[in-house]
Amino acid sequence: MNKYIMSSTNHEIDYEIYGEEMQYVEIELDPQEAVVAEAGSFMMMDTDIKMDTIFGDGSNQDRGVLGKIFSAGKRVLTGESLFMTAFLNVGQGKKLVSFASPYPGKILPIDLSEKGGKFICQKDAFLCAAKGVSVGIEFSKRLGRGLFGGEGFIMQKLEGDGMAFVHAGGTLAKKELAPGEVLKVDTGCIVGFSQTVDYDIEFIGGIRNTVFGGEGLFFATLRGPGTVYIQSLPFSRLAGRVWAAAPRGGGKDKGEGSILGGLGDLLDGDNRF
User: In the chain, what percentage of residues exceed pLDDT 90?
Assistant: First the structure.
């Protein structure tokens, strides 16, 4: 089991990641240690672990009502729920709690103490973290990101010196960018990057690219130095393919390999799309 050294502000957690394509992370908690997670990621846990719904991410629980409201407000701006779930070991010995990936891909462990206390990731990539890690929005200073960034614009920031876990869809690629080195990425394929990486949105350009390209009008430019993580299967792409392949017309399906395909529906008099 991987060991994370105790920090001054975040709870210590030991962990192990299992599986290949549908992974889950098992976290070992000492007495009075806790981990926070997004709703819906819980898989299983031992007895003597207390599950509690908290307002925000739990990083401002000691700062009164205003601190809790500010913590929750940051999550609302990223489109997430006002609440998260905390799992606290109230027993005497070590206990285990596990969290599962939402769809096929990889779980990426992030040691924030090695990232300068901050890591920037996609708004739906966060899975769980040691209690004390702050989960908020990464505000952009550039207007272009807000107007044209699309799914890749609204980024979350994970702050603290504890351990955090994010999820990447499909295959995970890690790129180490040298100072000034530029990587151009589909906005939805970004998992996250270190705070030293400069991030912007760039217009693809060209009439044919714009009208017939099928890849969107913009992509992200990431400029080093720093580490960038890329996913091959963003959830939006997976959901789009599933929706496109879903049968139409009251469940009558001509089959994916049918020669007639959609034309068969027209010949049957069923022209509902």
Answer: 42
